[in-house]
């Protein structure tokens, strides 16, 4: 870049800064909207920070037998099950509570000790909910233990559960979700951040700009760097809310975080620049940005590990840039892994390829087709 190019870039950068401070929508979509989105998802996926799971149940006892009394007493001792009424209720009353969602499940105790069956009834629309699965699993284990005691047998094999991590021992799901939301917010800032270019072309201002010595590539680069500054603000604000509002823990590796952030922010700004280059209207631009954002949001490990996706979707996740950006942000914010990790640099390379191609194609379109169109 020669001296004239540097001067042009500086003026364009200052102009973009002024535009950013004047546009209230920029502050909403890049700062306040990500905060609202993250808080909502943190509450939804982490239960508002409440770690004590409880399922409210009703118990019906058709016949008062020794076996049913023993089972009732044992159910009262299960920590995750909370009886709506300490004493058994009628089946009709329990079903009424269940239909009105006053309880999560109705348990009907067996009527006799011979071929006894304990019945679990749940609301149809909550049949596949997490609470139903937990209650079902608890009862399954409860019945197995009751059968062993009835047979006078002692368990021979037990099970313990533990976990290991490449990061700190205090990592939890809040940390995973926080870093995913940070990656998503920075990505969306880039994807949606070039809408003003579409508006400038719609009003014919880009065509006039082409008649000046201004270089469109420098204009796009200046806009990207402004979004980069907004991305830094996003990370700081969202991290503070996650740590102090939801108890997330951060273990920062500055170098890997800086590499991942700068690479990712430039890549998604370049993609937004590409979308703006062939969008004739703001609606068309927002439509493409929304499609890209929604596709990557659920296929890039933002809310849950990629291993939970169907096997046939796995190859798709491996080509999406947000997958590697979120992984890089997690490496820098919670896992604090060294940048000597080969997988880290492979992800950065795939992102860089997305960014270079997007920027070059976008710049070429601006030089040829897009900015030469008449304002409409």
Kindly summarize this structure in a few lines.
The chain is mainly alpha-helical and about 375 residues long. It has helices at about 5-20, 25-45, 65-75, 90-100, 130-150, 175-190, 195-200, 205-210, 215-245, 255-275, 280-300, 315, 320-335, 340-365, and strands spanning about 55-60, 80-85, 105-110, 120.
Largest sheet: 4 strands, mixed
Q: Give me the Rg, rounded.
A: 28 Å
Give the percentage of residues in beta strands.
under 5%
Low-confidence stretches: none
Number of alpha- plus pi-helical segments: 14
Q: What structural class do the secondary elements suggest?
A: mainly alpha
* H/E topology pattern: HHEHEHEEHHHHHHHHHH
| Strand line-up across the major sheet | 2-1-3-4
Helix content: 55-70%
CA-to-CA gap between the ends? 34 Å
How much is the average pLDDT?
79
Overall 3D shape: elongated
β-strand number: 4
């Amino acid at each position: 870049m020669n001296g004239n190019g540097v001067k042009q870039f500086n003026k364009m950068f200052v102009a973009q800064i002024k535009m950013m401070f004047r546009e209230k929508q920029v502050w909403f979509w890049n700062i306040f909207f990500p905060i609202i989105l993250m808080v909502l998802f943190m509450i939804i996926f982490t239960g508002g920070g409440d770690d004590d799971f409880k399922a409210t149940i009703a118990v019906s006892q058709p016949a008062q037998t020794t076996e049913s009394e023993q089972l009732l007493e044992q159910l009262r001792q299960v920590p995750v099950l909370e009886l709506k009424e300490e004493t058994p209720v009628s089946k009709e009353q329990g079903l009424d509570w269940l239909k009105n969602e006053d309880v999560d499940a109705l348990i009907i105790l067996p009527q006799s000790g011979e071929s006894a069956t304990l019945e679990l009834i749940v609301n149809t629309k909550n049949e596949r909910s997490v609470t139903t699965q937990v209650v079902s699993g608890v009862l399954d284990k409860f019945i197995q233990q009751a059968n062993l005691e009835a047979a006078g047998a002692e368990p021979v094999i037990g099970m313990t559960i533990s976990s290991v991590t490449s990061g700190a021992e205090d990592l939890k799901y809040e940390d995973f979700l926080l870093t995913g939301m940070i990656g998503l917010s920075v990505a969306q800032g880039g994807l949606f951040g070039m809408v003003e270019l579409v508006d400038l072309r719609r009003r014919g201002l880009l065509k006039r700009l082409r008649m000046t010595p201004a270089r469109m590539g420098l204009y796009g680069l200046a806009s990207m760097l402004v979004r980069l500054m907004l991305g830094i603000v996003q990370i700081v604000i969202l991290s503070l809310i996650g740590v102090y509002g939801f108890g997330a823990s951060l273990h920062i590796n500055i170098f890997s975080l800086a590499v991942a952030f700068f690479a990712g922010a430039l890549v998604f700004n370049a993609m937004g620049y590409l979308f703006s280059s062939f969008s004739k209207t703001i609606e068309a631009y927002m439509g493409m940005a929304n499609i890209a954002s929604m596709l990557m949001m659920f296929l890039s490990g933002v809310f849950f590990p990629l291993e939970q996706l169907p096997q046939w979707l796995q190859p798709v996740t491996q080509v999406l840039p947000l997958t590697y950006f979120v992984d890089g942000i997690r490496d820098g914010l919670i896992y604090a892994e060294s940048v000597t990790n080969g997988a880290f640099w492979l992800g950065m390379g795939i992102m860089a390829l997305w960014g270079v191609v997007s920027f070059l194609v976008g710049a070429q379109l601006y030089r040829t087709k897009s900015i030469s169109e008449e304002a409409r």
